[in-house]
Each structure stands twice: as C-alpha cells, then as structure tokens.
Amino acid sequence: MFKKKFIKISLVGSLAFSMFSAQALAESNDISSQSVKQAKLHAVMDAGVSSDDALFLIQTEELMHKLANSGKVIELDSVESLSDEYVRNNKWEYRERLLNGDRAALKTALLSVDRIMGDGFKEVENELQKVRTLNSVENNLSADDNFENVTISFPDGSSLSFSGSTVQGPNTADETVELNSTNYNGPWNQSIQYGIKTIAEPNEAAGITRSVNNATEWQFNGSGGSYGKVRAVLDWTFATGNTTGYEDNKAFFKQAGGDALSAGIFTIKAKKPGNGGHTSAVGWNNYIVGWYDATVQMTATVLLSYQGLGLEIGSGKQYSQYAVIEVEGAGQARYHAGTFK
Q1: What distance, in Å, lies between the first and last C-alpha atoms of the chain?
Q2: What are the pLDDT digits (tens) for 70-80?
Q3: For the chain, N or C: smaller number of CB within 10 Å?
C-alpha cells in the first residue's frame, strides 16, 4: 500500500516569508540547503498552497535535479500516460511513483502542465466559460457583468483560480492629460478573459477624476507537482468627459507592476512587468493595458526525449504566463490570463 512519504523538512523559527517578500530565496533553483528549502516552502504555503502540496512541490524540484545530475536519457514517447481517473483517485500513489522516477508518472505530470499552459488552453477557455455562465445565472448577472473571481477544476485534480480586485479613490476636480488612445496586442499568443469590473457609474457627473487600482492574479496547481501564480497591478486615473455618457470618458495610465511565484517541475526563469506604451484612452474600443510576465522552464535540464511535447534530448521546455489588465477608456477594466508556448 502506498502512503504519504515525504522528506522531512524542519520548520523552525517564526519565518514570515510571503509570496513577494521571500523573492530571492524562493526563486532559487538550488534547493540543497535547509534554509533555502524552508524559504521556498514558506513562500509556497503563504501563497495558499497546503503543507502537503507544498512539500510535494519541493520534492519534485529535487527529483528534477536528481534526474538532471544522473545524465541518463529518459525516453517518454513509448510510455503510456496515466489516466485522469487514476491520478484523481490515487493521489498519493501517483505522487510516490513520480518521486521514484516512474516514466509514466513523469509524462503525465508534463502533460498536466501543457494542458493548461500549452495547446490545451482552449480547454481552459471552454471550462472557464461554463463556470462563469453558471455563476452568473446563480447570481442573476449576465456572463460579462463585473465578474472578478472564478475557479475551475480538471478531471485529473488540477485546478485554476482567477481573481481580481478594485480600489477607487475619491472623486476630484477634472485634470488635463495628453490623450493618445489605441488598442494593444501583447506578447502572449493565446489568452482568455475571465473578469470584468465596471468603474464608470451610470449618468456620472461630467468633469471629475479619481484614482483606480486594479489587481488580478491567476494560478495553476497541477496534480503532477507544478504550481504557478502570477499577479498584475495597474494604477490609473479615471476621468469623466464633458457629458454624462460613457463615450467621452477617459483612462490615464500611471504604472504597472506585479509579481510571480512558481514551484515544482517548472520554476521561474525570468519575470517582469509590461505595458502597451500608451498613456491614455478615450471612450469605447480604446485601451490602456498593463501586465506581468513570468517565464517558467523546467527546474533542471533533464535529458528527456518526448516528441509529443517537442522535447529533443537535452532540450528544455518553457512557457510564459501573463496576468493582464486592460482598461477601456469608457471606464471598464478587463482581466485576462495569457500564455506563450
């Protein structure tokens, strides 16, 4: 019988590492020392991951380093992946098989990530729409009405969570800002919209402004020892136009930021904020945009041969994960999850 067999990681002291404060240690791919293990463990747990799952993620990172150091070629094309039903109903057995280097379990774990970040992103969009529609019906809302928080689950036990928040400052007198409105296509090659927050109020008085802070994040928690979270923050100013309609409202860009965390088979290679370079937008169909980009790659260079994921011997695999906030000049913020494979 398979049981939970995790390495013992001593949790001593009152370490208060958060997703964003343990940055240097939490992003380290060298997890050989106890201090780095503890820091990474705390960072993942502070991000909302359970203690069991966090330990498993740390162990999968160690597994990847072990496989890389062995110098052996791991051929996966001839191996059949495990079924969703097996993974879901035999959680601990599956994890033990993976940590023992079982090829079928490793192949399944890689496919679990690609299901979310790669070609399976269309499946994510379909499942997301089902959940958003159901929640909208239950709350007597349209499918696109001020939705900011959605969670979906997959047959293998993996999950995706999307969330957003909005903070608005008080109304002030109108201010003059140079206008240069446009729409923007970002560096992602696939994306889905998962939330909308309307900032403008119906029949709002003309000639007022207020500061707005939108924040959004999305995370995946793969059944096969992969976790990733990316968060974007956009500060901007909303201004009503000369009428009480939406068509001459304006949005002025201030700054974009955020952060990211990943653990397990894939860990962060690079991360950075971005924006479309446009300082303002007016009315409908014109936007300002800000995002945060986390590029993740295999934790260690394992010698894998798997044509199904385009893995040649000695090559790595990486994805980019984006949290995107797009604001229409009329006064509406939209949250997107994007990836680049």
Answers
A1: 39
A2: 888 888 989 99
A3: N
